[in-house]
Amino acid sequence: MKNLFISAAFVVAALSMSSCKKDDDTTPTSTTGTVEINMAHRWGNSTTNFLLNMELVHPMTNDTLTFTTFKYYVSNIKFKKADGTWYTHPESYFLVDLSTSGSEILSIPNVPIGEYTDMEYTMGVDSLQNVAGAQTGALAVSNNMFWSWNSGYIMVKAEGTSPNSGSGSFAFHLGGFMGTNNVVTTNSVNFIGNSLTITGGKTSEVHMIVNPAKLWHSSAPLATSSSIMMPGATAKTMATDFYNGIMFDHIHE
Amino acid sequence: MNNANSPLNDRGDNFFRMKHFLLFSLSLFLLISCAKEKIEEYDGWGFYKPSHFPEPHYKFEKNNLTRARFDLGRDLFYDPILSSDSTISCAKCHAQTHGFADHNVNFSLGVNNSIGKRNSPALSNLAWYPNFMWDGGINHIETFSFAPITNPIEMHETMSNVVAKLNASSYYKDKFKKAYGNPTVTDQNLLKALAQFMALMISAESKYDNYVLGKTTFSAAEKNGLQLFRTHCASCHTEPLTSSFGFANNGLDSDFTDDLGRGLVTQDPNDNGKFRIPSLRNVSLTYPYMHDGRFFTLSQVLDHYSNGIVQSSTLDPSLGIGFNFTTQEKQDIITFLNTLTDQNYLANPYLSEKKK
Q1: C-alpha triplet A155, A158, A161: angle, nearest 5°
Q2: Which one of 3.40.50.1000, 1.10.760.10, 3.40.50.10780, 2.40.30.60 gives the CATH number of domain B207-340?
């Protein structure tokens, strides 16, 4: 009996040892590869790169805008294999922040090798994480993407200056995860016959085009509305127009 | 104060047994090297569910209770380092001697003597709160402290600055290491430590509690007051926590432009003028009363419920045109409300400022 306890104890010890080890070990092995989703930002239908601190004219509202902040969340990324099964990347929360270079590349390690036909991703932060308490990484409150007085994530933050707004500036903090104000949107991409191949130890790229001008696709110009600070109908329209305007461009293996 | 049947204490005991088991196999050192989740025994300090309380809302999931984390939270609660000019601590507006409410002032002063439009509420039994603030806008005890720290009229600081200040302090680096196994301060650990301190603010040893538990008797006036309270007040100030944590308009105003209350959060006009029903624990000491601190005495509060109800479209129907209490009835209700004062809580050494 005692011996049994001792050997059991060693098993426990071994387990606790391995659970101590932080598994940040993301080096791809031969059975998995990495996918990098590259969010390229363009303004309007043009090939103009979208950058902060650059004067831009909106193709529909004709407003002149200079963005100083542009940040948004992408989460829960999944890939569908040719056989119909899904690979879901656990805990994938990404904060794309135009002032932090590199944040536009969403790196997803440990994707099993194979042929993938579809990708699914969520724009925003799912309701569960909005009520889950203090988080870390992309979801840490110090990223200033969390409403302190009305709990919930700011899922898109766009701020800047404009001669067209009454105050000379604009600030759109878009979010909401409950009921009719829920902006969280799941989008899917079909790679259209051109499947994504994950090769062991290699990185494959998915290129997406993100167009911040879509925020005003069906919303009023800045002279009418230049600030949103809480969930609501207008926030929902702006966020979903922006989310739905995100397009798959190409795969690069 | 001890309650050996609490599920959290059970967890502590199990852990303790497991610890001996591992010691036996000489692998304790492995455990120490990753003992970030160590749960300590209950020694008068600790979390417990009073036997007459419902299940707590906050269960320390992903934030296992440890003495080191609690101690860190306690230090932070009393330290003005959380404010931008290092002048204002949480305790400045939430004083233990007054049930962790601000005393004597309707509106507390924040950094640069800035002033808000809401009264600092009393704090107790926060682990049972499903939401926080007079409008219920905050949904989690862990994210709570982000609000006062960053509010320009309170501590007016940024999270990244607080984290930087704490990372520059050898005292706190040591404290964070003891609490979370890593000396690097993060906003997540800071918030979780404060949540542990707040969740252990348990007030359950008032005369009222002892009466409910059959440990003491009430005078005739206290009994009559409790009876009246149960008839007229307890539908909102639900026992034993003395709040249902719902939202109601208790007839203070008919014009809500100064503060929409719950309507600010839901943007539903039917919620304008509604406020989170406050707990009445230690109420004799938490004056002034109401979200804007308009009443300085319980006698004024009782006059309000008796004959001062202001009609409006969102007024709670149970208040009607007021209860038209007799002077004796008002006096008896106040006598009863005084039994909610918990001297052990007001003097609980674990909740007071620690000498560093």
Answers
A1: 165
A2: 1.10.760.10
Strands A64-81 and A55-57: antiparallel
* Residue B243: CB atoms within 10 Å: 18
pLDDT at B152: 86
Residues of B contacting chain A (CB within 8 angstroms): 21-22, 24-25, 27, 30-31, 33-34, 61-63, 133, 137-143, 146-147, 150-151, 158-160, 163, 186-188, 191-192, 195, 264-265, 267
Q: Is the pLDDT of residue A242 over 50?
A: yes
Question: What value does the mean pLDDT take over residues B150-157?
Answer: 90
Question: How many CA atoms are closer than 13 Å to the CA of A154, on its beta-carbon side?
Answer: 25
Of B22, B61, B159, the CB nearest to A9: B22
End-to-end CA distance of chain A: 57
What is the pLDDT at residue A168? 96
What distance in Å separates the CA atoms of residue A165 and residue A63, rounded to the nearest whole number? 9
Mean local confidence (pLDDT), B108-127: 89
Tell me if A133 and B147 make a contact (CB, 8 A cut-off). Answer: no
Closest by CA to B46, choosing from B189, B209, B195, B196, is: B196
CATH class of B67-203+345-351: mainly alpha
ipTM above 0.85, yes or no: no
Which chain A residues are within 8 Å of B30, Cβ to Cβ?
A: 13, 16-17, 20
Residue of A9, A134, A149 with shortest CB distance to B188: A134
> Is residue A2 scored above 50 in pLDDT?
no
In 3-state terms, what secondary structure has residue A111?
Answer: strand
Residue in B27, B139, B195 closest to A131 by CB: B139
Evaluate whether residue A23 is within a structural domain.
no
Percent of chain B exceeding pLDDT 90 equals 81
Choose between B12 and A249: higher pLDDT: A249
pLDDT digits 0-9 by tens, A99-110: 999 999 999 999
Confidence label for A29 from pLDDT (cuts 50, 70 and 90): low
Domain definitions of chain B by residue range: 67-203+345-351, 207-340
Q: What digits encode the pLDDT tens for the residues B17-38?
A: 333 333 333 343 334 434 444 4
Residue the block writes with tokens 């090798």:
A113
Q: A133 and B142 in contact by Cβ < 8 A?
A: yes
Domain range for residue A91?
31-252
